[in-house]
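Standup notes, structure subgroup. Blocker cleared on the S-adenosylmethionine input:
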Amino acid sequence: MKSFENDRNKLRGGYYTPAPIARFLAQWAVGQDSLHVLEPSAGDGEIVAAAAERLGYNATITAVELDGDEAKKVVARGGKRTTVVEGDFFNWFSGNSSDGMYDAV
Ligand SMILES: C[S@@+](CC[C@H](N)C(=O)[O-])C[C@H]1O[C@@H](n2cnc3c(N)ncnc32)[C@H](O)[C@@H]1O
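Run returned:
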């Protein structure tokens, strides 16, 4: 029998990228000169952590995540350079002038 938690995770797409693939994606998308990175649906922060490893001192990561418990994990994994927005990416995007602001998404 399916649990409520399983249904909730399925509805929000709560299935995450494995660490080796997150590192591969970060290597592909985040260059040494990347300054601002956006993770629009951060999950538990695997991709944020992989991107953070590649970024220089002045770089920033903005991560948006709908689920509050998962957003807290992203705060812990992203480090000081990461701003975590707990909420709906589409609301956040339409309320911010973010177009063209990011070197990698
Ligand atoms: C398939 S997971 C991917 C997580 C992460 N990017 C990764 O690759 O491991 C999708 C995540 O997006 C979140 N999510 C779903 N709809 C969202 C929305 N409208 N705004 C922000 N986050 C959302 C879910 O809670 C879930 O953590």
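Discussed briefly. The first helix runs from residue 4 to 12.
Next: hand off to the docking folks.
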